[in-house]
Amino acid sequence: MPRGAAKLQHDDPDPSSRTEWRAVLRLLPYLAQFKARVGIAMAFLIAAKLANVALPLVMKEIVDALDVSQNTAAAIALPLGALLLYGGLRFATVALGELRDLVFGRVTERAMHGVALDVFRHLHSLDLDFHLARRTGGLSRDIERGVGGIRFLLRFMLFNIVPTLLEIGLIAGILLINYSWSFAAIIVVSVGLYIVFSVVVTEWRTSHVRTQNRLSSRANTRAIDSLLNYETVKYFGNERFEADEYDRNLDDWEAAMGRNRLSLASLNAGQAIIVAGAVTLMMILAAQQVVDGHMTLGDLVAVNAYMIQLFVPLNFLGFVYREIKQALADMGRMFRLTDESAAVVDAPDAGAAQAGAVSIAFDDTGFAYDARRPILQGVQFEIPAGKKVAVVGASGAGKSTLARLLFRFYDVDSGAIRVGGQDVRSVTQESLRANMGVVPQDTVLFNDTLGYNIRYGRPEATDAEVADAARLAHLDGLIERLPDGYDTLVGERGLKLSGGEKQRVAIARAMLKNPGILIFDEATSSLDSDSERAVLKALRDAAADRTTLVIAHRLSTIVDADRIVVLDQGRVAEQGTHSALLQQNGTYARLWRMQLDSPED
Ligand SMILES: Nc1ncnc2c1ncn2[C@@H]1O[C@H](COP(=O)(O)OP(=O)(O)O)[C@@H](O)[C@H]1O
Ligand SMILES: [Mg+2]
Fold first, then answer.
1. Which fold has domain 19-339?
2. Which of 5, 71, 240, 380 is most exposed by smallest CB count within 10 Å?
């Protein structure tokens, strides 16, 4: 499978509505643990609807009791009981609704919590390629919207759509039993028409809504990326270029917004016509019945109340349908993230890797990020337990790739990598990585304090251990000079520290982790020669009783290595000790002479 290239096309491939509904199924397990709460909330919901439907009936009794045409004037008495009942029912509908929300709220939040956590965990389990190809801003928005979608879906699905359908059924039944079938027929037909119309038009609108969202997210991602690259933008004086680009994106979004608004207006207008038509027809029929003496004034009032009562939530139904579609799409997008499967997974029978200063072997290793371009070919060398091996070679030769493979960010395409004699694919990633400390080529820090970033190597370390690690990495001088010491904020991605300072933080936290295997990927490349000498001594001390892989640019830093491997375009060109390689008078000897001429290149 070619990695990277074709794998990740995340701009909505317009999922069919079936996949969208599948999002609901994905949600069910998170609700299942709250069966009792859901049940109680449903009971409150039904009780509230019954109270609501009873209201117009009580109103009819009240009106009829006061109607002079039905009673002799003298017989009219205040229908106090019915009036109190009316008030009680009104209160009950609201109170029962609140109780329902109280009981159910926790279920919603729990589900949101559970889903967000699972998605987050899953994202961390995905391979590096996924994250390199993905825009992080878009990723966080997908989660935010997806989780928001859950709240919306639960709230409106369970407490708007279901109760509204229940209410329609109850009202149609009451009209059918108490009055003529034509009332029930009008209700059923108009509601059916309304729903069909809303669904059809909303489906048609969906593409507009989608386009608008996509354009808005494109504009945002561009803007965030541009701000993240603030320095680069300034270096090249490209502020206007960036603004123009943003402006163009916003133009597109604005145009999409306009189309969206127009389609929304036509939906609302159509719905209003159906509602107005149904209510008018119903009232004409009812008034005729009163004229004919088949219905009382109370009946007319009750029928009117039912119509109004029914179309209030129905009016909402159009909006809710649209939003639920959106919520489902958002949830679908979020759940699709969890469908992304990691390329690197633990074998089912994976055991724990052997800890400590164990040996490392690259055994005829071949690897490519993209099948069309091999990076490593037949790489073969060994680092005996507790020894130090250096890898040198031109930029792009595949040195950092070796480190990434050893850490198992990727799996090899051919051959094997063995740690302590065990194939890295036969042990758990967790145990493999727990035994490795890496100082990467480019250190990125968390936007937190210096102390936090050092302690990240081992969060449970004591203050004394953190201070020790800082001293080893020659950070103590810097920390003393900083007014806020360990509490200094390092800025986004650690940009407030210099390259050399960041590198020393990376060294300190690798020291703090205290692993059996150390990997230094050009770990001192950003240091000046004075601090490099000092840090190298620290690294040498640290490496003394560990298995160490050093990737180096300056050859002077690795002359003491037990073995030096020269990598050239993904192949091992030479290997041996410093003196043996010099004697061989090959690539290494040439590189060495070059660097002697310009030691501070
Ligand atoms: N994630 C990736 N996807 C595709 N190509 C990559 C990726 N990472 C690195 N490469 C390519 O692999 C080659 C080797 O990279 P690397 O091992 O980082 O070189 P170096 O020896 O300078 O450390 C480079 O040409 C680089 O462009
Ligand atoms: Mg590199």
1. ABC transporter transmembrane region fold (1.20.1560)
2. 240
